[in-house]
Design a protein that fits this description.
Metallo-beta-lactamase, Chain A, about 270 residues, 5-stranded mixed β-sheet, 8-stranded mixed β-sheet, 13 strands, single chain, disordered C terminus, about 25% helix
Length: about 270
């Protein structure tokens, strides 16, 4: 059996917002100072096959939801030599607005999604504002149209998309959330997406307030650790510390893109 060929992994930061403690942790202090939240899409770059993980949102959505829009995530793929129009595989970790906007910028892609997530986003729970607020109905309807065009590949269990890249359903934050396990030169890494918004979620057992099932979130932290080579190999979905712990692939990309398959460092950089 030949050894696995390692992938490179990059995080593209495309938006940000400030939040209070009670807005990012159940039981958080509403009087605590602002806590930054960054928005990312991820690129898994291989010699034979590459994958985009989530597609972000656009400037109009940012304005409507009060987010600071920094750059178009689809256009930002050009910094890594990729063209959104040519991408063949997009992994959708879950269908919240900040993870499936811009899907129409990927006209040749197959979208990989868990069965349970589509059922959740189109089922009875969406009758409740507390559940549907993180979804954008036009994105959901748009992805349903892609189902009818044959461009959504559903999974209902862990799945291997390529040697060294697997999907793993965890749920909790959203009913059908999945994480991505990737073989890299530093070992097995896990793109946790919103299975852990911040490092503090999984390290301290704290839960983000937008949640479908608290118990599944807490169990998910254990599953993340099982899938990764070490806790330092898990990448949370929204933590600004990601941009501090990892280096940009080029000086001109500082504050925009960091490479995740290199060893992390504790460095401080200003964000444009």
């Amino acid at each position: 059996m030949s050894p696995l060929e390692p992938f490179e992994i990059y995080a593209i930061r495309y938006a940000s917002v400030d939040r209070r403690g009670d807005e990012v942790f159940i039981g958080g202090d509403p009087h605590a100072g602002p806590i930054g939240m960054d928005y990312f899409v991820w690129v898994v770059l291989g010699k034979r096959q590459s994958f985009i993980v989530d597609t972000g949102f656009d400037a109009e959505t940012a304005a409507r939801r009060g987010r600071k829009f920094l750059r178009c995530p689809a256009e930002s793929l050009k910094h890594l030599g990729l063209d959104a129009g040519e991408i063949k595989d997009v992994i959708i970790t879950h269908m919240h607005y900040d993870h499936i906007g811009n899907f129409n910028r990927f006209p040749r892609a197959t979208f990989h999604l868990q069965d349970q997530e589509m059922a959740y986003a189109t089922g009875r729970h969406m009758c409740h504002p507390a559940m549907n607020g993180a979804f954008d109905v036009e994105n959901v309807v748009g992805l349903v149209r892609e189902v009818y065009r044959g461009r959504v590949l559903f999974h209902d269990a862990p799945a291997e998309l390529a040697p060294g890249l697997t999907l793993h359903p965890i749920g909790g934050h959203s009913a059908g959330l999945q994480v991505v396990r990737v073989w890299t030169r530093r070992g097995w890494m896990v793109l946790a997406s919103d299975a852990s918004h911040y490092y503090a979620n999984m390290e301290e057992g704290r839960v983000f307030p937008i949640v479908f099932h608290v118990g599944d979130v807490l169990e998910g932290y254990r599953r993340l650790r099982e899938l990764a080579s070490s806790p330092a190999h898990i990448i949370p979905g929204h933590d600004p510390q990601v941009m501090n712990r990892y280096q940009a692939p080029k000086r001109e990309l500082e504050g925009i893109i960091v490479r995740l398959d290199e060893e992390p460092e504790e460095v401080s950089r200003a964000k444009p």
